[in-house]
From TrEMBL:
Keywords: Membrane, Transmembrane, Transmembrane helix
Stretches that traverse the bilayer: 7-24, 50-70, 82-99, 105-132, 144-161, 173-193, 214-234, 319-344, 365-388
Name used for this protein in its record: O-Antigen ligase
Species, as recorded: Flavobacterium arundinis
Length: 416
């Protein structure tokens, strides 16, 4: 049997590697792989659209770099912050450059990679349950993973497979939907469930203001309110078994990141509202440094004093340099000027490219949904700055694919 090796196999392998590495929870190796890939796939020309995105995150990085000279920080913290703050730049470059060198079949590649990630998740689940004897939702998530935004994107492409050139039969699509979909469900992640809804609504064009979309959005909001009321009535308990643990987290969700006061003496309240506590400390400590800190941040290497030691990840810490909230992280490092650039970067995802091509219109909708979800993701889980996040690669890839389709149309090589 003749084996055909794709001409772009090198770039496809780099893409799979860049997506897979963050799931192994070792940022040092991830950073090296991403840096190598960004350098190995560098292009001669870049569009103004990707340059604008890169400029926003590069600007945040530069502001943090210059602001650090007004403080005295440990070199380790400075280097660590640099690797964290440059991560979105590397991701955007990787996605754009790989797509630019070989954009044919990128959506199929995303789905296949999503299936690979789902396979890894199933292996982790089996180890968690059979070897580590994890039986509660919290224990399973601790050992098998907390969420996977990338798998959701792969799932969305499959759910709307008729709009994308995936190259799968209908039977293959159904199998992949079940395979990846169940993996997404088993993360029991609130943000992933929200992501599925937001991206699906965007692909259905429900965010366009008209009579139909208003009715559908109103109905969705009503269903959410009814569902949340039912959860409140059920009153799930802390550390409950099975789905009760997920329902308890959903019960906390509306207020957890927005509280303005958290009682340190009440460990339950403190644990349930830790994200808010980080925000409160940031909004107290950055302005206390004066107007320059508010405008330009405290720079790379700066930290927030939690006032108490607590276990974060695998170590006990009192001073943290990165927060759950992406907006607050940028505010700490680059101040209000950094926040402005961060908002501009989010806003760029909403910008449509005019075209009669269905493929471009579908990418416009996908980018719109991504932009909306990015706001939620940045508020509760750092957005593109999260160490295990891979959305920046996808955003760079979507931007390049859209440009490639428009360019082909202009040259007459791509028909409607």
């Amino acid at each position: 049997m003749k084996v055909i090796v794709p001409a772009n196999i090198f770039y496809q392998a780099l893409f799979v590697l860049c997506i897979a590495m963050p799931y192994f929870d070792n940022y040092e190796i991830t950073f090296m792989v991403w840096s190598f890939t960004a350098a190995a796939t560098i292009c001669r020309k870049y569009s103004m659209e990707i340059i604008k995105q890169l400029a926003c995150f590069a600007g945040i990085l530069l502001i943090a770099f210059f602001a650090m000279f007004f403080g005295k920080y440990q070199m380790y913290n400075i280097i660590r912050d640099f690797t964290y703050l440059i991560k979105p730049v590397l991701g955007l470059l990787i996605g754009y450059q790989i797509c630019k060198r070989s954009y044919t079949g990128i959506f199929r590649l995303i789905v296949i990679t999503g299936a690979i990630i789902a396979s890894l998740h199933y292996i982790k689940l089996a180890i968690a349950v059979l070897v580590l004897h994890a039986h509660t939702v919290n224990d399973i998530r601790q050992h098998a993973g907390y969420f996977s935004d990338f798998e959701v994107f792969a799932l969305i492409l499959l759910l709307f497979y008729k709009r994308f050139d995936l190259g799968f039969s209908k039977k293959q699509v159904y199998v992949l939907v079940a395979f990846i979909g169940f993996s997404v469900f088993m993360y029991m992640a609130r943000t992933n469930f929200i992501q599925v809804v937001v991206l699906s609504m965007a692909m259905k064009n429900y965010f366009k203001i008209n009579r139909r979309s208003v009715i559908l959005l109103s109905s969705t909001i009503m269903l959410v309110v009814i569902g949340y009321s039912a959860i409140l009535y059920y009153n799930p308990k802390r550390n409950g078994d099975g789905l009760e643990a997920l329902l308890y987290k959903i019960k906390l969700a509306p207020l957890e990141p927005f509280r303005t006061h958290v009682d340190l003496t009440d460990w339950k309240e403190f644990n349930d509202n830790y994200r808010s506590y980080e925000n409160i400390m940031t909004m107290k400590q950055v302005p206390a440094e004066g107007v320059p800190a508010v405008l330009f941040g405290k720079g790379m290497g700066s930290t927030i004093d939690l006032k108490v030691k607590m276990w974060l990840g695998d170590q006990e810490m009192r001073y943290i340099s990165i927060l759950h909230n992406g907006f607050m992280t940028v505010f700490l490092k680059s101040g209000l000027l950094g926040i402005v650039l961060f908002i501009i970067s989010l806003r760029l995802n909403f910008k449509k490219r005019r075209s009669v091509l269905p493929r471009v219109r579908e990418l416009n909708l996908l980018m719109l949904g991504t932009g909306i979800f990015m706001i939620i993701s940045a508020w509760v889980f750092m957005g593109l700055y999260f160490l295990a996040d891979t959305k920046s690669i996808l955003i760079g890839m979507f931007i390049c694919a859209r440009e490639a389709y428009i360019k082909q149309q202009a040259s007459g090589h791509l028909q409607e």
